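User: What would this chain look like folded?
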Amino acid sequence: MALIKLSTTERRRLSAFVTCLGLAICAWIFTTLSNNYNFSVKEVLSYKNSPQKRAFHSLQPDTINVIMQGTGWQMLFSKVDNANKIINVDLHTLDNKDYIVLSSQLKQINDRKEFDEQIVSFSPDTLFFDFSDRAVKRVPVKLLTGIKYQHQFAQSNDISVNPAYVTLNGPGNILEKIKSWNTDSLGLDSVNETIRTRLDLQPVREGNISIYPKSVQVVIPVDEFTEKTVQIPVKLTNNRNYYNVKVFPQKVKVTFTISLRKYAQTDEDFFEASADLGLWRDHGYSTLPVKLTRLPAYCKIVKIEPQNIDFIVRK
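Assistant: Here's the prediction, encoded as structure tokens.
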């Protein structure tokens, strides 16, 4: 295919034409985008001045279509910006009716907006609400954990959750079914020291329930553990006929793990071991198994020696 050769003058004319065409297109785009248009965007509803004596539940989604009036530039940028903007809706009139007409608050909503586009209308324009009697209830906080401790470390005392109770405000028929409120899950690995953290409570799923506070302070005591052995006397139980019974041995060795902080103060007085004579009387046992009926909190039994004791009954 033969190439068209242009003279110097023709190249200048072509260059001038392309430049003028580009400038004309840019001017047309600028003029077009400077005009005002109506366009639709989605915005998030945020409620304020909620009625104090009535619990409400919105019967529509928390986002609505809003017809905006703005320049073509604003319309273009609204399509690029995917973040939903917030519309503040005043609910003070819900004290005596069960719906809100958004167009009646159009001026106030536009005055409070932080951007230049003006709202023309809403879809839907009327918001409907379901009402029930409002109640207040305190429920305990339930801590959700998934903690893995470093070797020889473990929880050494009771967990502290402050506050231990939260206050719920909402419909009575819903609150009566709630017995506790969960925290977010606390997941940690290789823990070797006391945990102190602030943990958020799980968010409210129903729009007509509020919770206070929304977070709690959690302290989980953690300590290093080691083994210790003590000798504990065995008590005989269920000796209903008051037989003269001798047990062998009279004491058992209990090996357990205990935190280093409690090692020195933990002795045989913290334990109680028993054997049930009713197993011989009712079932003919020749030896009696030893059970620990009292032991310190957060200690773990490693072994009991012996696990069964001999006995002689003198009638």
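Helices lie at 8-34, 72-80, 106-112, 172-175, 278-283. If you want, I can go into more detail on any region.
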